[in-house]
Description:
The chain has 184 residues and is mainly α.
Amino acid sequence: xxxxxxxxxxxxxxxxDLVRENLPSAFEEAEKIVRQREEILLQxxxxxxxxxxxxxxxxxxxxxxxxxxxxxxxxxNQIRKRVQQECEAIQEQARAEIERMRLQAQQExxxxxxxxxxxxxxxxNGADEYADSVLDxxxxxxxxxxxxxRNGRQQLQPEPLPDYPREPDPxxxxxxxxxxxxxx
Length: 184
């Protein structure tokens, strides 16, 4: 017996279409996450630039007002550190959110893949059961036909002649007579 299986083509194609329809939405979701990440990073950089500019203006004002260069440098450094820490925190949050969304998308894709495989297996099993049922029915019909053929052939066979000794013909040479021709 070969290892071939009959599969309902329409049902299989419908399942493949369902997988194809769901995959693009997962990829679009991933692209959206990447764009959001880039926007967050850009906003963080703009925010940092604004804070830096504000800090520099403030430092200039202090220099102008107080003439204390050391105080201005100290404050600017503190602002830079604070901005840098805030930027790093925002970037880390964005990375964590992106990773969480990526993992979620992967899990959803794996679930859809498992569901598709399970459905394919169910279809395969159903097809195997159907094929086995059809073959069993065919086997029964063939056995019945074979029984009818054997009975018919048996009825066509001549009945065996009884085994008794024949007397040789006085004009024969002692050879056995030839059997009668078969019936047609």
